Amino acid sequence: xxxxxxxxxDEVAPEEKTERVGAVFSSVAAKYDVMNDAMSGGMHRLWKxxxxxxxKPQPHEAILDMAGGTGDIAFRMARSGASVTVADxxxxxxxxxxxxxxxxxxxxxxxxxxxxxELSYSGNTFDAYTIVFGIRNVTxxxxxxxxxxxxxxxxxxxxCMEFSTTQWPGFKEIYDVYSHKIMPQMGKxxxxxxxxxxxxxxxxxxxxxxxxxxxxxxxxxxxNTRVEAILGGAVAIHSGWKV
Length: 243
Fold this sequence. Notes:
Structural class: alpha/beta
Order of helices and strands: EEHHHEHEHEEHEHHHEE
Number of strands: 9
Mean pLDDT: 91
Helix content: 40-55%
Oligomer: single chain
Radius of gyration: 17 Å
């Protein structure tokens, strides 16, 4: 039996997921940041600020921001003087990021089209690896984590922020209704793309719970792992170190 992976609530062949996820992000690229503001009520900006404070980028550090697309995380880290490479499998997302950087007068970033499962970089290259709201869209999460570990230098740190499952009683039910009913309709109204935002909502539900994902990070070779839950776990910051 051929391998199947999840694409939202569907089970598809790995190559089909890669292709379909690519189509989703090509479709939403132009309105991605507008939709982030609309869907989170602007809270994603606070989450991202909090995430970068946890990363603590330092001057002259080499940081790989995977699935960095439109540059939100990279722009924040670049303020520290770190050398940031923005990588994404989707060139349309990178194109939006480059345009946003030019509008803001932010230079010095490196933009690279990369597959998180097969990075082109040598081992022991980066001081930190970040990935924000991207790893759940990777076809083989274990391969992406293994690559993150490989390209980090000894002593390098891994930071991931991803949607998860809230543990707050009552809020979970409200969040489920919002994700499955309201989010696709917002996608239809704002981005003229209901189907892509339905997939994005479903992909959150299919992502491993916090303890399971932490175990995957440990299995990839990271140590001193930590999970920081936001909104009861609706969003979580995962971290680990390479020794």
